[in-house]
Amino acid sequence: MKKIKKESSSESPPSFLSLPHDIVFNTLARIPRTSYPILYLVSKSFRSLLASPGLEAARSLIGRPEKYLHVCLNLNNKRNPNPRWFILSQGELIPTSSFPYKHLKSSSVVSTGSCTYIIGGEIVVNGRKKGSKRVFLIDCKTHQWRKLPNMRLSRKQAVVKVMDGKIYVIGGCSSEYSTKDENYGEVYDPNTQTWEPTTPNLRSKKGYYSSKICFLDSDSFCSTRLSSVELEKKLWFVVRDGELRCGGLSWWTTVRGLKAILSSNDLISVTNSGQDRRVIVWWKTSYNAEECETEIWCAQILIGIWDQKTVNGFIEWSQSAFTFQGCHRDSEFILHSALVTHAY
Q1: Closest by Cα among 318, 235, 227 to 276
Q2: Each residue of 184-227: pLDDT tens digit?
Q3: For residues 76 and 330, what is the distance between their CA atoms, to the nearest angstrom?
Q4: Distance CA 40, CA 332 (A)
Q5: Residue limits of the FKB95-like N-terminal Kelch domain (predicted)?
Q6: Quick one: pLDDT at residue 35?
């Protein structure tokens, strides 16, 4: 009599997608959006989940805060004559509410929480260029603009930083005020909505592009200058001659490993990404079809181990972030950038 062999049945472990949807959504909601491009590659089911309204509901429910890049673009063409603010989300630029006031050159920008502040700027009075006292705020949760109390002094290209929940504004005023003058700096308290003078303990050093890097109580300030980002203490990134460069006060070198995007493009700007050891670089392409069309591209770069001779970068993702009709003629299109934190 033949013995019947029992087939060994080994059940495969349950998959993540076999869990109840509320558990799946609650888990995915705790993963940063910046990891979504990787999850998209897992399967069609994951792509469907990541685009599901249920996931958005779960994110809102737990109120998970994330950092988002808030940028002001100067598209500078007939169809887009005024600067416009955007939020960079999942590699795409999402427009926020239009700025309802006149945009001033040489204003300073800083953010805290979900709010971005636009401080001072250049105005022309009787043919002479002067600073402005005005201050505006946009709350990226509600996308609402509002005007704040004026500063005590008119300022343009001032140095700004948030410390202990207050906004410090240094310099950018008339040359009649010295660094020792109590009016050289002022501080804004969002709780009381008042400005008070402050005399910071400043010492200045010459930095790249002759811009100033200042220090206040061991916390670094930097002037609002286009295409410059402080990734870690005493480590700066700038775009020069279409390349990403990295350095400190006494050394600079080109970031390697970016040939995939540099072979046919010149970089224009670099901004903070809100993530450790990462920056976002920007460039544009224009197509002369029946009507000129311009694409704004960005890529996230992970910075590897560096020394004063070699800095390596790794392209984590690269994609077209925004397309508009018309040709953009200016080389620089990012006027301001700031990181805002909220559940978006």
Answers
A1: 235
A2: 889 999 999 999 998 765 444 333 322 333 333 334 444 434 45
A3: 8
A4: 32
A5: 87-212
A6: 67
Contact 301, 244 (CB under 8 A): yes
Question: Helix or strand or coil: residue 48?
Answer: helix
Torsion angle, alpha carbons of 298, 254, 108, 278, to 10: 50
Buried b (16+ CB within 10 A) or exposed e, 243-272: ebbbbeeeeeebbebbeebbeebebbbbbb
Half-sphere exposure of 153 (CA within 13 A, CB side): 23
Q: What is the Cα–Cα distance from 83 to 74, expressed in whole angstroms? A: 4
Tokens of 297: 């591209």
User: Which structure tokens are listed for 115?
Assistant: 């709010």
Q: Can you read off the two tokens belonging to residue 338?
A: 């700031």
Using DSSP bridges, classify how beta strands 135-139 and 144-148 pair: parallel, antiparallel or unpaired: antiparallel
Which residues in 133-147 are b (16+ Cβ under 10 Å) and which e?
bbbbbbbbeeeebee
Query: Which three-class secondary structure state does DSSP give residue 34?
Result: helix
Q: Is the dihedral of CA 225, 228, 232, 235 positive or negative?
A: negative
Helix axes 21-28, 53-62, angle to 10 degrees: 60
Q: CA 256 → CA 61, 237, 312, distances in Å?
A: 42, 13, 5
Domains of the chain by start residue, with CATH: 16-60 (no CATH), 65-342 (2.120.10)
Helix or strand or coil: residue 210? helix
pLDDT in tens, 292-342: 788 899 999 998 877 767 889 999 999 999 888 777 666 678 888 888 876
Measured from the Cβ of residue 307, the count of other Cβ atoms closer than 10 Å reads: 8
Distance (Å) of CA 149 to CA 137, 160, 171, 182, 251: 11, 16, 18, 19, 41
Alpha carbon of 291 to those of 67, 74, 107, 160: distances in Å?
36, 19, 33, 41
User: Which tokens belong to 337?
Assistant: 């950038």
